[in-house]
Amino acid sequence: MHAYVDSFNFNGIDFGEAIRFFLQGFRLPGEAQKIDRIMEKFAERYCKCSPSSFSSADTAYVLAYSVIMLNTDAHNNMVIDKMTKADFIRNNRGIDNGKDLSEEYLGALYDQIVQNEIKMNADSSAPQGKQANSFNRLLGLEGILNLVNWKQSEEKAVGANGLLIRHIQEQFKSQSRKSE
Asked: Which residues are part of the catalytic machinery?
């Protein structure tokens, strides 16, 4: 996860577009603890690339979580009472070290998300192979994969986890070859 997130360069990219681009490469897991770690790393990376964007990575982290909740709220048919712009602004009061982000900024972010859903990898209508190839090229995924120690593939895989790891490794290798 760290290698993947660190492969992004968010320098000069609007926060809403950065989170949209970031989330296109995968589907967020359902477990809140995992989402928390992913969003924390995203916020850290965003603030490292755009140091003047927020007063701290904590601000970006809370806002990222808020954007994900807004995206779900706005685009999930099961949600009946949709969040209003005023609700979104109120929910984000005091997140910048006790200060408020500007209402204009939050309002524009709200409009951007409500008008254009953030679609994660599994939600996209593009064919999987085409997506994987473009992301491999864009992110240099093959290089990232080479940095990771794939010890499990060298040792005998044990149980369902080992088989899953081997299957994922084979898919990555196959996709990398196709993108070349």
From this structure: 31
Same domain membership, residue 84 and residue 47: yes
pLDDT of 41 reads 92
Whole-angstrom distance, CA of residue 69 vs CA of residue 46: 19
- Helix (H/G/I), strand (E/B), else coil: 31: coil
Beta strands in the chain (DSSP E): none
Coil, strand or helix: which one is 136?
Answer: helix
Distance CA 171, CA 8 (A): 22
Mean pLDDT of 112-118: 91
- pTM over cut 0.90: no
Same domain, 134 and 105: no
- Does the structure show a pLDDT above 80 at 61? yes
Same-domain check for residues 100 and 11: yes
